[in-house]
Amino acid sequence: MFAPRVGKVVEMGLKVAVIGQSAFGAEVFNELKKRGHEIVGVFTVPDAKGREDPLATAAKADNLQVFKFPRWKALKKDGGHTLPEVEQQFKSVGADLSVLAFVTQFIPVDLLDSNKYGGIIYHPSILPRHRGASAINWTLMEGDKKAGLTVFWADDGLDTGPILLTRETDVEPDDTVNSLYKRFLFPEGVKAVGDAVDLIAAGEAPRIVQPTEGATYDPLWKDPVKARIDFDKTGQQIHDFIRGNDRVPGAWAVVNGQETTLYGSTRTPSGGIPTDGKPVEIEGSKHPGFVTGQGLVLTGSDGEKLLVTSVKVGGKSLPAADLLGESSNEGGGKKEAPKVDEAAARAAIEAVWKDILGVETVSSDTDFFAQGAGSLDATRLVENLQSSVGLVIDPEDIYRAPTYGDFVKTVLKTKSSAAEYKTVKVRANGLELSLPVQHFIGGRFVDGSEGKTRPTINPATEEVIVDVADGSAADVDGAVTSAKDAFENGEWRKISARDRGKLLMKLADLMEQNKEELATIESLDSGAVYTLAVKTHVGMSVDTFRYFAGLADKIEGRTIPINDSRPSKNLCFTRREPIGVVGLIVPWNYPLMMVAWKAAACLAAGNTLVLKPAEVTPLTALKFAELTLKAGFPPGVVNVVLGAGSVVGNAITDHPSIRKVGFTGSTPVGKMIMGGAAKTLKKVSLELGGKSPLIVFADADFDRAVRQAGQAVFFNKGENCIAAGRVFVESSVHDKFVEAVVSDVRKMKIGDPLDRTTVHGPQNHKAHFDKLVAYIETAVKEGATVVYGGKRVGTRGFFLEPTVITGVEDGTVAATEESFGPIMLISKFETLDEVLKRANATEYGLASGVFTKDLNKALKVADGLQAGTVYVNTYNKTDVAAPFGGWKQSGFGKDLGQEALDEYLRTKAVTVEYW
Ligand code: NAP
């Protein structure tokens, strides 16, 4: 006896054909069977990417024949009639009733009507309101107080057939499309379809004609362009819009200049909506937004606020609180995940993925959602991992890292690395600094293979700041493996150039948000005067990342008119492609800025990198790595290995999988790099030393020339590659010039670099300080005169007086070798031709300058100087948009400007024949 739950008792269940797909179709199938109906046929969609639909799987388990029609009707252009083979197969199952469980295909009604009872359809709204395929979105976007579902009889219209039954629920204040579906429309929908079939079986199913009043037909809602938030709406309307778009297509706004998709809006967070936080700019809104540890607060036109808890920027989902750019790795209220065995966790992740996706194998690029999984599967994944191995993961992780490889790295990294890496706390400059101290490889901070460390010293106090990892060739190899994997298999190559630019922009924003910390660390580690560190060391680094972020999607090839192979035609075009894994080796004078000058162009071009900072200044490179982690760079894109040039630098130069080395440093080491790179035929770019001449003519604006010459030599304690290594002054103003310079130098305040009134800090490290003292002694031995300075200041710290030396003979060591310190060498000259010759009498050719009011003279000198940069009536005017690099033995290849991108790209010519 068949006993339906609804209606009277009848003899037999119905013979039902189930048409549909997805988990919902499978649950309806099971529900109807459970209620005693006989499923006589299942009609679902063809397999996608070799994976069958869950409804097909459920039916196969019952040995039922499954029909997978790509379409039921012929295309309109072919007559639009029901396909005969479909008709024949559909009728062959002999169903009394067809049940359409969330069907995506167009099913001919005349075919359904050939069943005894016709067909019934599930629809996720209370009809006649919200007809159409995006009913749930519209229910929320329209601010409906009730949501619901309808089972109706199929007819010729779109969602217009007579109603059989409806079910409804209150819309909760923070319901989203997802939550409404999961908590009500899916489970109650399955039951409602069961009830509807029971009513038909019992002969009690009504056919209530849909009223015309209140009917709406709402357009399909999946176009992200339309999902932009209108801030002229009230707070409640914006909240409704965000949740009505959550998660697809995702409502978005421009936050701090970046397109940002917003999820998880709430107007009722526990503890209420925060009233203050770090301001962010919201384009189109009269009210600025602000970010707190709870998320992003937005305000509607009526002043009503809402809190957004999750965002997606540059293709990556993040907690909205991360818009602060300073989410702590130190617990910060985050729940500690229980410890789990990593090997067991890996095995469990693999097993659960295979089970959910119904596949035999998973590889690092298997995409959870592209393989057909939905949000319910994501929930299953989370719950399954927790119950099987106790792995507690953030449900958002699967959206942040939808491919298998990235998911494993994200989940295990969250547990074992990103959340737990070692940092040392140091108080300085009124801040508590948090210093990472390990290598950064594959998105994790790790100890080196040999476990060695070395101290890094504060040059102002000669005290150890912290011990950091000291790497080996094996560490370089590990970093290269990660970088290669990220380049060849990771997300990095898959994201668009524009998204790459957005990530770089995000990194720049994070650097700016953390500029006080970065500048303080730079000051401690390199002796940079804090005010200069903020403006130049960090400020220009931020600008560099912003500049190259903007160029990322402007890397273009050309079309080339080659000869056609007649009678065929040919198309030839070039693509500008990244090179692969790039090794970057940088010096200590501007530790972070040198990283930025190279890394920004390298990453904008799409490469992955292994960076070696100078062994005496490793700290801001590690902070940079930390910020790439926070910005959401995929693991392995940025790697940092600390250690000596002779070990780590050498291993980078020699590594066969590194295809290019970008080097900044001294000319002798540059030559070694070039020789080493020849062994594996790597591309190299070399930014090397200089002995830049600065020529002051008697007709120059004297005060300006004196001031600028001082800056040209003493800027950043003279540890400046373009520092004017020799100042040539026309003899008629020479003595006056020397006097004026000395008068200025006397006023320079030397001392603690963190003191805001200091202009001259300590030299970078002891070996360099000793070298400078020896250089001054050599100049004196060679017959030159120290007219000011030349001595150590105090007994603690590597402080050297700014030094002015005259009477340097051409051809001496002092006249030809780079000092790289605060030492001004002033020489007399008589004529333009003579000074040009003397200025060029060096193997260096980095920068140069000329001061004169005579335009002809200025241009003639600019023409004649053999250097990559010539400044006229100015000096040190370096800009991110202008190419920078040397001539002669100052190297080749440019940093900065559009030309820098060429250093990190290779050209592929593609030739196509067509006819
Ligand atoms: P450096 O001694 O040449 O060192 C530069 C980098 O190369 C450091 O990271 C160093 O590691 C590494 N290195 C040393 N030996 C190596 C090897 N055998 N193989 C691979 N890498 C090796 O230069 P520096 O003293 O740090 O910097 C000062 C020089 O840089 C000056 O000549 C200056 O003019 C030049 N510079 C040029 C520019 C430019 O744009 N043209 C800009 C800034 C500075 P360690 O840390 O272990 O020594």
From TrEMBL:
**SUPFAM superfamilies annotated for this entry?**
ACP-like, ALDH-like, FMT C-terminal domain-like, Formyltransferase
Keyword set, alphabetical order: NADP, One-carbon metabolism, Oxidoreductase, Phosphopantetheine, Phosphoprotein
Reactions that this protein is recorded to catalyse: (6R)-10-formyltetrahydrofolate + NADP(+) + H2O = (6S)-5,6,7,8-tetrahydrofolate + CO2 + NADPH + H(+)
Q: At which positions is NADP(+) bound? A: 665-666, 771, 818-820
Q: Where (6R)-10-formyltetrahydrofolate is bound, by residue?
A: 105-107, 159
Q: Name one GO biological process term.
A: 10-formyltetrahydrofolate catabolic process
Q: What Enzyme Commission number(s) appear in the record?
A: 1.5.1.6
Extract the GO molecular function terms from the UniProt entry.
Answer: aldehyde dehydrogenase (NAD+) activity; formyltetrahydrofolate dehydrogenase activity
> Could you identify this protein by its name?
formyltetrahydrofolate dehydrogenase
What organism is listed for this UniProt entry?
Klebsormidium nitens
Question: What positions are marked as the site Essential for catalytic activity?
Answer: 159
Q: Name one GO cellular component term.
A: cytoplasm
Q: Which Pfam families match?
A: Aldedh (PF00171), Formyl_trans_C (PF02911), Formyl_trans_N (PF00551), PP-binding (PF00550)
Q: Which domain of life is it from?
A: Eukaryota
Q: Which residues form the Carrier domain?
A: 340-415
Q: Family, per the entry?
A: In the C-terminal section; belongs to the aldehyde dehydrogenase family. ALDH1L subfamily. Belongs to the aldehyde dehydrogenase family.
Q: Which residues form the active site?
A: 123 (proton donor), 687 (proton acceptor), 687, 721 (proton donor)
